[in-house]
Amino acid sequence: MIFSTLEHILTHISFSVVSIVITIHFLNLFLLVDEVVGLYDSSEKGMIVTFFCITGLLVTRWVYSGHFPLSDLYESLIFLSWGFSLIHMVSYFKLKIKKRKNNLSAITAPSAIFTQGFATSGLLTKMHQSAILAPALQSQWLMMHVSMMVLGYAALLCGSLLSVALLVITFRKAIKIIGKNNNLLNQSFSFGEIQYMNERSNVLLNTYFLSSKNYYRYQLTQQLDRWSYRIISLGFIFLTIGILSGAVWANEAWGSYWNWDPKETWAFITWTVFAIYLHTRTNKNFEGVNSALVASMGFLIIWICYFGVNLLGIGLHSYGSFTLTSN
What's a GO cellular component annotated to this UniProt protein (predicted)? Predict the structure, then answer.
């Protein structure tokens, strides 16, 4: 009873704090109050509180249940939320040493509240109470395999969202430039060819010589690309370890390293998509927008692998359906 109450309190505290963090980011975005240092510090402290609350929640459930808390969809979603918070903490302290702002919480905070909000929703009420592990999950490989997979999902999702943000900024800028050029064509011919040529040359100068605003936008896209590459690389390593450990576990449990059931197939597809991303990202001709397109596609693939396949409830991972684990 005490553990259950403590878990309930920690869940609501972490959810409430991360909601406040998102509100602060909306204030920064729409009210243009970036210069208010107090708001930035508050959001960072909020993510730190969220991290420790979710950590306490997982430890409490571990002690209460007697097994590592990754045995059902509810626990894996909470662990995924913890993974988002962990990524934020690592980036926060790394950038703090360099005395630079950490804007990654604009990605990690909404991701954490989305996963935790779904986990604590009424759809998964039956899973909130810890149950005895299914026979297939009573293995020392549970912690190794599932934790690596979920951490891999968290890192890959964060990296993919950064790539989506890069695409939004890039294409938004391109649309504005095209719109300005179209307006120029519509207006300048009515005033004669000489005025058209003068205005056309001004547009070309404004396009090719970066203004201060365009310079900062360029710096932002470079930073997004760099962070996306680093986080996806880390997630790819976790995913690879998770797949390999899962293969060893599958051989012990089912007598075969690979069985091509839906979960394994989509895990392989996910691994392949991000392997393609890493290959294109290391090629100078394809880095930036081209590699970001691959990562953005991977964002959808991950959700199909992690959550979509579980809705089917078929295959050797049928215990990973809507009622049990989601590894």
Answer: chloroplast thylakoid membrane
